[in-house]
Design brief:
The chain is of the alpha/beta class. The chain contains eleven helices and 13 strands. The chain is globular, with a radius of gyration of 21 Å.
Length: 322
């Protein structure tokens, strides 16, 4: 669908973009001009720096073991209980949950590059992409397609890539990946910077995918995953998703941000999603006294939907949707 037709459905709110960009560039230039005398530290390797500059009374592993929930039981917390958690408890729950799995996948297949750009897909019966009939959504902010290309090549899936950073009409890559110049958000809108964002339900309507089983959904949108997932869980839009792959970003660890993030994780656990693989991105890793070892700012978590592991079978589930 051409962008002009999609945009016609929304009320644009693009105001003073040029002025805002000029102000932002001025701030960046000012900061750069005043930082030449500061020592350079590689933010990827801050272990020694952080250990030398922080207090030494780190919380020990006994506290983490006694407090931090590592599995689906996070979904049993009430919002009221989360609201009462102190900073140390929030921190222990957040990192303990994202750092550990709570279900097993017997056969994982790496789709895409071994390093950046690649993701694991569970190939177990029931949750594996249904060859020749599978559907894959990939929400991203870059033009790296190794994951999408492997999903197309190995399982012969219909693959859609969504990237609000690009402009122009939607297009197909040489490997027949459908690329769309919009992405997922908590609400359907055109942002102040001119990006097209749609709810998961509206994206399905645009593509005429209502009611279809989504074999794999990958979300790597540098922070907007939180409100998007919150909305999808709130409106029960994830029931037809077999595998959910998410890169979680949290650069500011305030109590409010931690609480909001834990609520999203709780909602996913309550919806039934289980983690079969979790890994840490080393970029931006740091030390904090609230945890005894280094922590990442970015987690890559791979979920599966246990509903599709039942004896009912995938073909029957698809038939019931038609």
């Amino acid at each position: 669908m051409p962008p002009s037709l999609r945009r016609f459905r929304l009320a644009p709110i693009q105001i003073s973009v040029g002025i805002a960009a000029i102000i932002l560039l001025g701030i960046i230039a000012f900061k750069r001009g005043g930082s030449e005398s500061l020592p350079y530290f590689d933010p990827w390797h801050r272990r020694e720096i952080d250990l030398a500059t922080q207090e030494t009374d780190f919380l020990d592993m006994e506290f983490v073991r006694n407090v931090g929930v590592v599995d689906y039981k996070l979904g049993e917390f009430s919002y009221a209980q989360i609201a009462k958690m102190n900073t140390s408890e929030l921190y222990a729950h957040y990192h303990s949950y994202l750092d550990n799995i709570d279900t097993l996948c017997s056969r994982k297949i790496r789709m895409g590059y071994i390093g950046y750009g690649g993701w694991e897909v569970c190939d177990d019966e029931g949750v594996r992409p249904d060859k020749h009939h599978c559907l894959v959504y990939s929400f991203t902010n870059n033009d790296e397609f190794s994951f999408e290309e492997d999903a197309r090549r190995v399982y012969d899936c219909e693959v859609h890539n969504f990237n609000a950073e690009i402009t122009g009409d939607d297009y197909n890559t040489s490997s027949n990946i459908e690329v769309h110049s919009y992405s997922i958000g908590r609400s359907s809108e055109i942002t102040e910077t001119g990006k097209e964002m749609y709810t998961f339900a509206d994206i399905q309507k645009i593509l005429h995918h209502e009611g279809r089983v989504l074999d794999v959904m990958k979300i790597n949108t540098y922070g907007t995953e939180w409100p998007s997932l919150s909305a999808m869980a709130q409106f029960d839009e994830l029931d037809n998703v077999k595998q959910l792959l998410v890169q979680y970003h949290l650069s500011v660890y305030s109590d409010d941000r931690l609480r909001r993030s834990i609520k999203v994780l709780k909602d996913l656990a309550k919806a039934g999603f289980r983690k079969f693989y979790a890994t840490k991105n080393h970029r931006g890793a740091y030390h904090d006294r609230r945890f005894p070892v280094m922590r990442p700012r970015i987690y890559e978590v791979h979920y599966l939907n246990p509903r599709y592991l039942s004896n009912m079978g995938l073909d029957a589930k698809r038939a019931n949707k038609n």
